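Sequence in, structure out. First:
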Amino acid sequence: MRIVRIANYVAPRSGGLKTALRHLGAGYQAAGHDAVLVIPGERADADMTEQGLVVTLPGPRLPGLGGYRVLLDRRRVAEKLRELRPDRVEVSDRTTLRWVGGWARDAGVPSMMVSHESLDGLLRLFGPASGRRVADAINGRTARTHDQIVCTTRWAAAEFERIGVEVRRVPLGVDLERFAPARRDPGMRDRWANPEDVVLLHCGRLSPEKKPRRSLAALAALRRAGVPAVLVVAGAGPLRNRLQEEAGRAGLPVRFLGHLSDPDEVAKLLATADVAIAPGPVETFGLAALEALASGTPVVVSAESALPEVIGPAGVAAHGDGPEYAAAIREILAMPEAERRLAARLQAERFPWSASVAGFLEAHGAGRDHEPLGRDAGGA
């Protein structure tokens, strides 16, 4: 079966979506299917990789978003899709690429939309007062033009289910070999902190919807309470310079590492921190948080997001902003270290990529070539 996947907002330094696409594609290939990924780039290109063929089509760079590009030339994209002759189409952007579902229906190709973002949540943060009605309208059109909707958590599925759309829930996964407690690196820790310090980690894009200021505010509250904490920030984004200035003015011990391109360095970083912070309120899954758990590091997450579902008993969900996050961190630190690190790892082991790949392939009807996708075929 040839599964053609198409996504926007995939950049050289992008995080969770790029990771998910890579692991799913590699899983499709390993299962004997032909995976193709179509993404925007500076120029047209094609490259055979472990996740199958990656086709790049020219797409303009969006200003102020850290290098993200989008596929806007529908005619060119449609031509490429016809050339690729897919058996299934998997779409990973329900705003700018929703039209692909209509193309697939006209071509007689079953299509699946994967909801990697919360449209409801983004409009709640940045949209008009009528944002919920706007989200309902867009989600309704998405459901009508695709044979199936896949969400990674109950939280993500809720915005579809409230308008009567049935969805299939398939969690994402984590690389349990790369991200492991054994990656802990005392030498790395010594570069940031004194032996008595608590090392906090914010790992993620520094953009408004991720609420990175909550991590700085948590650090400030802990320091005021006498907790010798330091914060390590791994990630790039439009807020980085501003956050550095704010941390400097407040005299906060924050180490900004920028984007880390070496996955082994990321794995060591996640295993070395004492507590990770994932404060984004519109996360639909939270791969970075799951990678921290796999590394044996408990996580404090936003109670507004899907992450409480993912972290289970291996972390704490915080309401509000800085003081609430500081209290959640202290709750975690009150647990014996060996106990909290074991709980984190055990929770992550519930999410192997093999299970995610199997769930996505089942949604695609793998082994039943050309049978139309239907929401009653093992849905959520």
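Second:
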Amino acid sequence: MSEYDDADDDLPPPQNRTIVWLKRVGMVLALLLLILSFVNASWLAPIPRGTVKLVAHRGTSQQFSHKGLDNQTCTATRIEPPVHDYLENTLPSLTSAVALGAQAVEVDIALTTDGRLALFHDWTLDCRTDGKGEVRSKTMAELKALDPGYGYTADGGKTFPLRSFNRGQIPALEDALAVLPDTGIVFNFKSRDAREADQLAAALKFLGRDVIKRGDGFLGTEVQAARIRKAFPGVWAFSKEGAKACTKAYLAAGWFGLVPDACKGGTLFVPLNYQWAFPGWPNRTLARMNSVGARVVLVGPMGDDLPMGLDLPEQIGKVPASFTGYLWVDDIYAVGPALRPYYNKRSPEKEMALAKNLEARRKARE
């Protein structure tokens, strides 16, 4: 009998029973922790096959401050000093993203008055272009006549360095498919109108796009995602609300080796700075999601005034070597070559200009 057992015997019976109870609870919790650790051990799961897939958000684009953004903010008026002349959602932007290492490109869809689908982010034209009014009030020909770089400025409107470089480059859907015949496209519905999903599905079928083979994705409302899944069974179609539901449910149920219903055929978002919170990360998480047809998307750090995707080259160092899901990238120009250096075709002058912008970006977040 140990000295601790003797000490327990000297205590009043109720207190003695409490200590014994606490010891037993402690042993049960320790055993449970050991079991959960074993169940969620990533190193015991099969090593995922394949490689990470970069998704270039809006293609190769100008970067801007996210501080204090709201739905009415004109981001074209708060860009960093340009180190290239690519503009989001334009044809040169799409091809550039692939040249920088992207396996998929996210684009924004808008329906025109003549029944065409254009690639453009904003609801109105006033911020970025030399046009006025709602995008959806124009024909495709009217959009193609505009200068999509007209409103971009890095010095509060003193200069507009991107004017005229991309006039005529607002593309129609068929233009984008022509320059990305073998690259996955993530179509983002900026409208909540379910008819735009029907229109896109019909157009893709008419144009002969094999969305499953190409690895295309569709991001919209739950109703839009359901319409797309009906048109293309098995395709990747999701909403941000659905992805949040899967993520929250897995954070709770995953520790017990369970994959919640919200994740079946769904999408799991994993913030770069919260990877540690996901049960079985990365290998076992990937295996569990793959078993129910779910996609895993590693996004940028969660926090105020930060973009959704990665935008600093050093963030690549935080991506597990065995991760084979999707990596959401806001600045493919900086991040793509950081992952795969052979895609780096920047001149020494552009390297210096980029380094200056990146340093300012880091300081702004301190």
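Remark: Residues 300 and 309 are 4 Å apart (CA to CA).
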